[in-house]
Amino acid sequence: MSEPDAAAPAPKPAPKPAPPKDSNLRQLVDFGGLLAFGLAFLVLRLRGLSGDEALVQATWALVAGSAVAVAVGLVVEKRLALMPLLVGGFALVFGLLTLLTGDGLWVKIKVTVLNGSLAVALLGGLAMGKQPLRALLGTVIPINDRAWRILTFRYGLFFLCVAIVNELVRSEALVAWAAERAGRGDVDPADVWVSFRGVLWIASSVFGLSQIPLILRNLTSSDKPVDPMAPAEPDTAP
User: Fold this and answer.
1) Rounded Cα gap, residues 52 and 107, in angstroms
2) What's residue 226's pLDDT?
């Protein structure tokens, strides 16, 4: 009688998918650059510089923070996704223009140009049946096409609103008019705009978090790494 066959070895468990590359570090650097910009502006104002002068001088922190954010994205993520590259590139270009010309208009208008361009790209691409948000993020999120279309539309509208509000806040005439109506004629328009940048970072973060339920409801696979924070705010960089 032949010996019974040896029991077949138990199959090895399938390896767990690797966690997604953490983008929190780059987002932390983005916020750090914005925080450095705000603190530099505050210190310069306390030293007696006018709002416009402090804004120009504090732009050194913006340029440095943007350069570090781009470098971190390249080193940590081993690639340069389109969105962080656009954000960092716009900040560097407009920041350098501010320093070279000594005019704070450039750093203010950067928010309008960047967010307006993103709004046109997303809403225009959506109208042509494309999914530009997926290309901009450079991150694969396993959600269905319907969810991608909804995210693209929501972010397109959000960027458009940011561009419009920034144009209102950066208008010195409008700020002066509103301050006078509020009985605060001594308000410096530069102070108002820098404060708005901090509020914008918070609003962008809240908006990004509010999209997580949509992502989780529309997952197409449970065995792929998911980064629900992938569609993070585009303009967290200073």
Assistant:
1) 11
2) 47
